[in-house]
Automatic annotation (TrEMBL):
Belongs to the DnaX/STICHEL family. GO terms for biological process: DNA-templated DNA replication. Residues 37-180 form the AAA+ ATPase domain. It comes from Anaerotignum lactatifermentans. This is DNA-directed DNA polymerase. GO terms for cellular component: DNA polymerase III complex.
Amino acid sequence: MSYTALYRKFRPNVFAGVVGQDHIVKTLKNQMKTGRVSHAYLFCGTRGTGKTSTAKIFARAINCLHPTEDGEPCNECKVCQDILAGRSVNVMEIDAASNNSVDNIREIREEVKYPPTEGTFKVYIIDEVHMLSNSAFNALLKTLEEPPAHVIFILATTDPQKVPATILSRCQRFDFRRITADDIAHTLMKYLNEEGLAATEDALRYVAQLADGSLRDSLSILDQCLAFYSGEEVTLEKVQDVVGAVDKTVFFDMTEALKQKDAAKAMELVEEMLLAGRDVKQFVTELLVHLRNLLVTSTVPDNARILDLSAENAARLQQQAKGLSPAELTYWIGRFSGLQNDMKYASNERILLEVEILRLCSTWADTDLTALAARLAGLERKVAEGVTVTVTEQVSDGAVKKEKPKAKRKPPALPEDKENLQKEWPLLRNEIGDPILKSKLSRVEIGFKEDDNVYLVCEYGALADMVQKYLPQITEELEKATGKTFQLQTLEKAAYDQWREANYGAEEEAASDENDPEWASIMSGYFPEADMEP
């Protein structure tokens, strides 16, 4: 006999088996009791939260010959048995991803004219309805607005934003919530007990956290673990082996290494992680979760419900958060989030991770205000902890201080359209739809010379060559966003900096941070008594 996957075996057949959606189950039952069943429903929610299962249970309940007093289908009458076996012609489940044309909807429009052969209603369950084409949605409109009395439509989707407003307004919308980790872990333990299998509580809680609110995902992960360790008790270490994850201690150690700027220790942790056969992307994902938990711990006093951690991990998190500032944590989260996006297009993820770690452990890599604010917060923390800075180089008394070069002439004022472009560039590049181009532009800034061109200043020459190929597309995107047409050129950052220094003097001298209002605002937050007027 072929094996049945756990998520199929434990698919609920009654409303009582639907996990974490009591608000929807209660509403549907009340509608059946009072005879106020709607002609069209829209079930929205992330994957694995019970949308299709609830739709099938509802279809049986409204057609059941002998429903229970609380609105459950009996699952024993001929109608229920036919629907469960997929033999019923009155309950049709349609996958909109593969049946998304207007012809498929026209077939439905012809079929709905005929009454059900058995039961009370004909029910059409259209899964992933957002995948229908525009013409298919238009063909469905009239039928949804004035369907025959014997027809009910149940539309299910993971992306309701893509469903036209004209469809949404004709349906009763039910939003399926993400299932909590506690509910998932409890449900998994119940299923394992029914199967006569064993797993530790921390293993099931970890599976629940990996599932991210999806009961189906958690059952698939658990199924994989049971197959790999056939007949054995499932433990936390075994789950981590199967999914390529690492023990949470590594994230505490990595955070400590970043805090102390100990590049050697951080690189050693990466090496150990890879030697253990762990997945780099999974490591970065879980590190981001750990940093987020630290940020919540340091900023939100009553965070037990938000974090959903064991008492031991929560206490350890609290201890580590005391030595970190929100500015540092926010900066690290931003850097690792960008790294996560870059990894989608990388052939060697390890190199990207190691370079990012070295960057965060250095003092030279980032000079933007966010990085400087995070670095300043780290220095404040060290001062508070009583850490002293050792001077490794002494300047002799006879050494002549190097005079600061005087700034040359100031750059001319920019026209309003170019000034606005420079200010809005970080937002404009993030709105570009092409993910590959968006990734490349994250390392590109806007620059100007004394001509009519707008220069895309790239961090290195190879990037400039790549961006050059996208100039027509970038020009078109900027024209859509600003209503202006710009003459774009690419330029390597080193060449651009050299040109500016030759014409206007060194950047740090020509436009000192001391005169920058944004810099003054950040610094005044740390030194309120100091004179920080720009």
